[in-house]
Amino acid sequence: MDWGSIFSNAMASALGPDAIVYALAAIGLNVHFGYTGLLNFGQAGFMAVAAYGLAASVATWGLPFWVGIAIGFGAALLLALLLGVPTLRLRADYLAIATIASAEILRLVFGSVTLSDWFGGSNGRQQFADTFYDLNPYSSRLDFGLFSFSANDAWVFTVGWVLVALSCLAVWSLMRSPWGRVLKSIREDEDAVRSLGKNVFSYKMQALILGGMFGALAGFMLAIKQQSVIPTDYATDITFFAYTALLLGGAGRVLGPVIGAMIFWFLMTFLGGFFSSAASIDLIPDVVMSDIQASLVRFILVGAGLMALMIFRPQGIFGDRREIAIDGR
Amino acid sequence: MLGAILLGAGGAYGTSPAALPSESPDNSITVVLLDTRGTEAGEPGTPVPDVDIEVSDDSGTVGEGTTDEEGRVSIPIPGLGSYTVTVDEDTLPEDTELSGEGGNERSVNVVISGDMRVQFPIADERAAGAGFVSKLMTGAVSGIKFGLIIGLAALGLSMVFGTTGLTNFSHGELITFGGLVVYGFNRGLGLPVVVAGILTVFVSAGFGWVQERGLWRPLRRRGTGLVAMMIVSIGFALFLRNVYQYVFGGTTKSLSQYVSQQRVSLGPVSLAPKEMAIIAIALVAIALVCAALMTTRLGKATRAVADNPALASSSGLRVDGIIGWVWIIGTALTGLAGVLLAVDQQVEFQMGFKMLLLVFASVTLGGLGTIWGALIGSMVVGIMVEVSPVLGVPAELKYTPALLVLILILLVRPQGILGRRERIG
Amino acid sequence: MDVETSATGREALASVPNTPGAPKPDPIIVGDDITRTFGGLTAVDVEHLEIQRGVITALIGPNGAGKTTLFNLLTGFDKPDSGDWSFNGHRLAGLPAFKVARLGMVRTFQLTKVLSKLTVIENMRLGATGQRGERFWLSLLPPLWRPQEQENTERADELLRRFKLDAKREDFAGSLSGGQRKLLEMARALMVDPELIMLDEPMAGVNPALKQSLLGHVKSLRDEGRTVLFVEHDMDMVRDISDWVIVMAQGKIVAEGRPEQIMSDPAVIDAYLGAHHDADLSELDAASIEAEASAELDQEAKDD
Fold first, then answer.
1. Which 8-state DSSP code applies to residue C245?
2. One-character DSSP codes across B57-73
3. Is C37 an 8 Å CB contact of chain B?
4. What value does the mean pLDDT take over residues B155-168?
5. A1 touches chain B (CB under 8 A)
6. CA-CA distance, C268 to C265, in Å (whole number)?
7. B20: DSSP letter
8. Are residues C9 and C106 in the same domain?
9. Domain contains B252
10. Residues 232-251, chain C: which have Cβ within 8 Å of B?
11. Which positions fall inside the ABC transporter domain (chain C) (predicted)?
12. What is the pLDDT of residue B112?
């Protein structure tokens, strides 16, 4: 078994575009869930409207790339407003159900044959980010020793981590301001905040929009890194994986989602590599685990890991138990 | 839409299990278009020649071909991976229409070397042009059947929610559990579907008990919050779904009996015998459970716990014991929903996951935690799903009206049709 | 708002008749026909209600009398089936809770709602109104809100000293005792600088050692010119500090009057005290039973 390449692949994945996308999505969820206590189970929907907003604008309607980005952000804003108005006044589980349902509606709509002239059905849309890659200053591979990125990946890598850093900076400065204090207080007890004359609904809406904007950034990065949008990339599971990443790093901590996303992708790639080479060199007999089955083991472990995290370390693997963001109801 | 119904009746399937051509290359996708309209179940249909088929992957087209006199075309592919097979609908004969979900496209995951066959259900435009009222009626009856299946699962979800407050995101996997277990008993052990189904309900009940004792009760004892439990249930769902795929594989499989049945005409609608049986079984199961909840001591205790667990506990009820029973009965009902779904359609590892949101929609529509609400909500959702294509909603989007209504109902009446407003403070 | 208002307020009450819904000379709250039903049950059905400005009014009644529901309705935390009420002449019906609070009518809760994962001082800072830093875009520019935050912190520290919580300043609010939480909630409400402060069972779950100081704090609220309305089961407290008592039973106001009149009103004793002793013995901790017993002894001693 080639431990070296399994490890370097895992490292590349922990620093690469996948981790960036999940870090951004999880930063959004951290604003929603970690700081405000909003259970948004439809982050995939925010990512999808932004990605398709960009892709369809450029590939279908021939608009400039940057207009597409603006349309993507606008679509995410609209989605937050549409979702927030009915559900933010309600109990947490209603928001969860409404957001997961709308993410599913969006996925079905983007993949539908009827609208394939716009969104390309199950094939999606391709080649809409040339403007982005034209700006690429790298002309050759970027070498990190253990692993290297192609010039395009290096550009995605650079822009992505800059976005992650800026997002973290924004969250950090917001959360230490009185605005962030109101959000954290809403997470603790919204009636108390209401009794002190704060418009809780408006703050929840602002949090939903802000987190949705980070979701939009994640959607852009996912679309741009592969120059392609397809509906299956925005399935419900992506939201839950982002939650897993968030809980790994620790909800309600500025760097929690970033560290979580890196650990998540390191483990995913490491386990994927380990089991597939274990199955292919017959370390594990084929009867027990075929190649396809080997690729599933990591997802089984993600499920079990999410349960274990929530039960045993809800504060994340580094968090302080006293500060845990989630408890009670 | 109509194609989906015909498909259930076995009337129109796009492929036949005909032998593969020997000259087939190492890796290929074979499409066989057979129009089985008007033929008896089990007989091969009429080949549909001269239809253009295209196979593509993420980077574009990898191969094209046209069906031959046998309605067959084999398109070589470069290797294993995900492909999309597209039928050029313009080249279909005029009276022919593809009718399965996804229209003229199929996503194919080629995971083993060799030949991969792809199905395209074919419906008859003349049949599709049948009277609007007749289509509406057929849709409504299909909807009632689907609604009853949802209703069984919704009852299970609602009972658990009512007594424990848990919004269980792994509930879809409990439906799948029923489908997979009945498949195992039927295909694995060779039992008749009816026997396998009955056994499955008992196994599901046991699964509910094990879950409650092994997972949910310990969590309640630890004082885990509801939001935390909800996230645990998501982890559990991911875990189960991938275990299912590990064990069962990613393909869709059929039970050994009742796969295709001739429809019997009943006035304006026609139903296959198995559909009637599904409706009858679901009705009986729901009636039994509701009667039990209304009359038995356990049922009354369940409602008492749902109303006020603390009070029920202080008046001497064994709350944990009752919740245990709720899990047993709830999971058994949900397993039955999986069995009926397997008989009605087919078995695959995501069958319940795909239903989960419809079950949530039903339960929210009726009012979280109310038994009657869950049933009414299920019927509304089931009928909405099956009737909306008749009213012009594209078939691949037939789930969306129900989900939109779910969001809208939260806007106007969050407590659901039958729920009560909550008391604050 | 000064000492004079409250003194004149109390004097003015002397001429108010002891009838339910009696008009007051200078009411801060006036309500009419407020009803709220849950299912088929009428929780609140108040024909007329007036609360005098500048005094301490107690709202008492047996469990389930609708006191907390009335609190919720008045402050916008619950919506009535019908009714109209105003605060300082502002109509409040249909106004959301946060707007009611901004008008200067702030409540606390029966089950104390401190924000346990925030420190005591952060809890206090949250209470300040009109904070520039609570607006999204401004919050990104600390120089714009730092000075105001500084002022708020000074005011918060002053209140913490007054409520003897200054030693706990940097502790998580979740680590406070029941009585300290009540104090923190009251201090936090004062950060809003309310004209009317509504306390829902301020004595529930409070250590007897703290009770006396809590009583003193409530009185000091009146003495600095605020109006206080509180729900309480602890008759000791009601007798000790209230200027006026409103008795509710089964959602209706059944009696009103000065505490000594109410305590001796046989109708009230029948309707309320009997029920109170029956219903609440299980809830009272030993300390409060003792306090009640000693209060009764005191009363007997005085009668002698």
1. E
2. ETTEEEEEEE--TTSEE
3. no
4. 89
5. no
6. 5
7. P
8. yes
9. yes
10. none
11. 29-275
12. 60
**Residue-range domain boundaries for chain A:** 3-323
- The C-alpha atoms of residue B411 and residue B421 are separated, in whole angstroms, by 14
Q: How far apart are CA C284 and CA A49, in angstroms?
A: 57
CB contact under 8 A, A112 and B235: no
pLDDT at B55: 83
For the segment C75-96, the average pLDDT, to the nearest whole number, is 91
* CATH number of the domain encompassing residue B53: 2.60.40.10
Chain B contact for C38, CB < 8 A? yes
To the nearest 10°, the Cα dihedral for B347, B350, B352, B357? Answer: -140
- Which pLDDT belongs to residue B3? 31
Distance CA C49, CA C253 (A): 8
Chosen CATH of A3-323 out of 3.50.40, 1.10.3470, 3.40.50, 1.20.1070: 1.10.3470
Top-confidence range, B330-344, B389-403, C36-50? B330-344
Size of interface A-B (CB pairs under 8 A): 147
Same domain, C15 and C103: yes
What's the structural domain count of chain B? 2
Range of the domain at C169: 115-175
pLDDT digit string (tens) for A107-155? 999 999 888 889 988 889 999 999 999 999 988 888 887 788 889 989 9
Chain segment B312-361, per-residue pLDDT in tens: 777 777 888 889 999 999 999 999 999 999 999 989 999 999 999 999 98
What backbone phi and psi angles, to 5 degrees, belong to C245?
Answer: -125, 135
Beta bridge partners of C244: C57
Number of structural domains, chain C?
2
State the residue range of the domain holding B84: 2-16+28-128
- ipTM above 0.95 for this complex: no
Instruction: Tell me whether B104 touches chain A (CB under 8 Å).
Output: yes
For residue C231, the domain's CATH number is: 3.40.50.300
